Amino acid sequence: MTILRSPRLADGSARGIPDATVARLPVYLRALNALTEQGVSSCSSIELAENAGVNPAKLRKDLSYLGSYGTRGVGYDVEYLRYQIAREIGQTQDWDVVIVGIGNLGSALSSYQGFSTRGIRVAALVDADPQRVGTEISGLTVSSMDDLDAIVADRAISIGVIATPGTAAQEVADRLVAAGITSILNFAPALVQVPDGVDVRKVDLSIELQILAYHEQRKAGIEPKVSGI
Amino acid sequence: MTILRSPRLADGSARGIPDATVARLPVYLRALNALTEQGVSSCSSIELAENAGVNPAKLRKDLSYLGSYGTRGVGYDVEYLRYQIAREIGQTQDWDVVIVGIGNLGSALSSYQGFSTRGIRVAALVDADPQRVGTEISGLTVSSMDDLDAIVADRAISIGVIATPGTAAQEVADRLVAAGITSILNFAPALVQVPDGVDVRKVDLSIELQILAYHEQRKAGIEPKVSGI
DNA sequence: CTCTGTGAACATATTCACAGCC
DNA sequence: GGCTGTGAATATGTTCACAGAG
């Protein structure tokens, strides 16, 4: 939740892309990859927007924050645009992440197929439970929490994933920050406090379903009222 | 992404709570539960906001959409507010969900501890792979896709979770909708199209990390420039 | 003529600041 | 006096609609 702000474009190189746009750039990248696989080498904002599931105007506005990478009257060169977005979001390099908490969810994340093609490399697994330390999960050996500092330093890891129970989340976040991690993806159902300069994003599996349940309830509750339609 | 809209409060009973507020209500519920466990029976908007990780004004505005459940000069009764929010988001009942795709992620979701206490009950597991059908995961037997219609109908399930590879996602979504599912949580890295009236929410594990990577890149790239501070 | 890039209009969300009740 | 509930102000995000490049 502690996300850096810089939405105004100042001088030359510092861009300042809106958060909402940043969150969609990976979606566009995926859509462009799909088009490449289909052998499409050029596309309009309408086609790309369809593949990404957004409104074409929104897509064009989003891309306009990066620069003018299209051709008026023609559209976008798929490969060129793909490279430009990849460069913008740092996908020209791989990012190493360390996962803390190798329970069911942590194990699933460790072997998640979708990461490698998106510039994410699971570089290390850490767990507090001595029973799990030494275990091998999809080619990686689970390390002890005591080795966290060394792992983060040695492999120059800046992104950590918390996949522990909620009760351990804050403690783990503190350890990650102390080890030098500056970005955290938190799957634990708990709020974690971090110092300024550290970004946290939260994925809460229950909350997503609770939101759907809310809408379900409304559907069920409202339909009887709208008997005319 | 196809979320029903009704932000305007019309006559009496139809409320119309903003999406952003709906997404935070489960967070408040969790914070209230935490306070109850600590033996706190009353709290101010400031205390609750701290526990939920939001601004107190935002919290008060969010709660104002539900009604006036606080007492001026005093604060909120934890138990009473907890009940009111629970009722609003449909947490006074349990919601059955069916998970499709029992790979690593699907298995992890099946045994996720956080659901049961949040009104979510994993009622059925389904997989297209005959090898997996019949397997038992945390007390549930994996069923065949052929049985999907019967399962959804018999257990009156309205929420489905897609945990398949991206390539299967649209096919699975179609099957879920055909079976009568009206809300889908999609973990597959793919866009799914659904008819009007069906809600889809998407959780994309890669994208969350890619967004963090973007911010990491900025931190790394910008610091050398801001040498004065 | 086609399709991008973008100012302007609109919609939603957040935060401020204070009136009103306890 | 203290804290909620909320109008008003601000910030952010989305969509429209069209000027302008090719």
From TrEMBL, chains A, B:
Q: Which UniProt keywords apply?
A: Cytoplasm, DNA-binding, NAD, Repressor, Transcription, Transcription regulation
What's an example of a GO molecular-function annotation for this chain?
A: DNA binding
Q: Which Gene3D superfamilies match?
A: NAD(P)-binding Rossmann-like Domain (3.40.50.720), Winged helix-like DNA-binding domain superfamily/Winged helix DNA-binding domain (1.10.10.10)
Compartments (UniProt record)? Cytoplasm
At the top level of its lineage, which domain of life is listed?
Bacteria
An individual GO BP term: response to redox state
Q: Where primarily located?
A: cytoplasm
In which residue ranges does the UniProt entry place its DNA-binding region annotation? 27-66
* Keyword Thylakoid listed: no
Q: Which GO terms describe its cellular component?
A: cytoplasm
**Chain positions recorded as NAD(+) binding sites:** G101, I102, G103, N104, L105, G106
Protein task: Modulates transcription in response to changes in cellular NADH/NAD(+) redox state.
Give the quaternary structure.
Answer: Homodimer.
The UniProt family comment states:
Belongs to the transcriptional regulatory Rex family.
**HAMAP family (alphabetical):** Rex (MF_01131)
Q: What is this protein called?
A: Redox-sensing transcriptional repressor Rex
Please name the taxonomic classification of the source.
Bacteria, Bacillati, Actinomycetota, Actinomycetes, Propionibacteriales
- What's the gene? rex
